[in-house]
Amino acid sequence: MSTTSFLGKLGAVAASVAAPAMLFLGAGTAAAAGNALDVWGTSAPGGVNVFVTTPADGLSGWCTYSSFVRGNPIGKPLPAIDVPFYLAPKPGRANTALLWFPSYPTGSTWDTTVSCPNGAMTVPTVW
Question: Is the pLDDT score of 16 beyond 90?
Answer without folding.
Answer: no
